[in-house]
Amino acid sequence: MLAASCFAFASLGAQASGHFDVDDAGTLDPGQCQYETWWGRAGAEPVTGFHFGPACRVGPVELGLNFDRSSVAGVHSLTVGPQLKWNFLGQAPDAPFSAALSASTVSDLKRGGRMGGQFIVPMTWRPASSLQVHVNLGADWAPGTGVRTPRGGAAVEWALNDTVSLIAERNRAAGEWTSRIGGRFSLTPLISVDVSTSRTGSQGVRGFVVGLNHEFTWK
User: Fold this and answer.
1) What pLDDT, on the 0 to 100 scale, is given for residue 219?
2) Which residues contact 179 (CB under 8 A, 6 or more apart)?
3) What is the mean pLDDT of residues 16-30?
4) Model confidence band, residue 145 (pLDDT cutoffs 50, 70, 90)
């Protein structure tokens, strides 16, 4: 069930970085909304996961709602919950350093609405216009048990040009390390596709995810 737990913890909060585990410190601009959706598979069983997460900028914060479904060996789970993200430092897009607070909760609808949650402090450093380094520190609360586990990681995002970015990250969640590498391909300035492959835990459980991100104006 290692891969199942990885999907479960990764989906506790929709990432501004799409399906990548390490979040950036940015938020949507005022008046903007987005939705992120992705599908992934991991392990030999296999475990499959699907995510859909709309979000909008409301005043100084970004508000989102996350829907996640995972399946393994015919057993399904469905979680839903809100997310709030507030950028408190370096709000300008070209700020050399920025930081935010991100908090979310989830209810496991297949198991009597058991609650879980996540709290993260995402930080982003921009040493160059084409290079960003993201660092996360936080914790997860498992639905139902309330067991808290630390969460943290780092990622490097390198923009090759206006349409292609490469992303590599190393993240620890639910007591396991995940290494992930992938890319983001911009179809338009507001629509992008993500793909990545990952390895998790001492057994090297392999995973693959493909996602779609779409930003739009709501007023």
Assistant:
1) 67
2) 169, 170, 198, 199, 200
3) 89
4) confident
Question: CA dist 189 to 80, 94, 104, Å?
Answer: 29, 17, 28
Residue 1 is predicted with a pLDDT of 38
What's the pLDDT tens digit per position in 61-107? 999 999 999 998 888 889 999 999 999 999 888 899 999 999 999 99
Beta bridge mates, 71: 48, 76
Pairing of strands 47-58, 148-159: unpaired
Q: What does the alpha-carbon distance between residue 219 and residue 217 come to, in Å, rounded to a whole number? A: 6
Average pLDDT over residues 121-147: 93
DSSP string of the chain, one letter each residue: -HHHHHHHHHTTS-BTTBT-SSPPS--PPTTEEEEEEEEEEETTTTEEEEEEEEEEEETTEEEEEEEEEEEETTEEEEEEEEEEEEEEE--STT-SEEEEEEEEEEEEGGGTTEEEEEEEEEEEEEEETTEEEEEEEEEEE-TTT--EEEEEEEEEEEESSSSEEEEEEEEEETTEEEEEEEEEEEEETTEEEEEEEEEETTTTEEEEEEEEEEEEE--
Q: Do 102 and 82 form a contact (C-beta atoms < 8 A)?
A: no
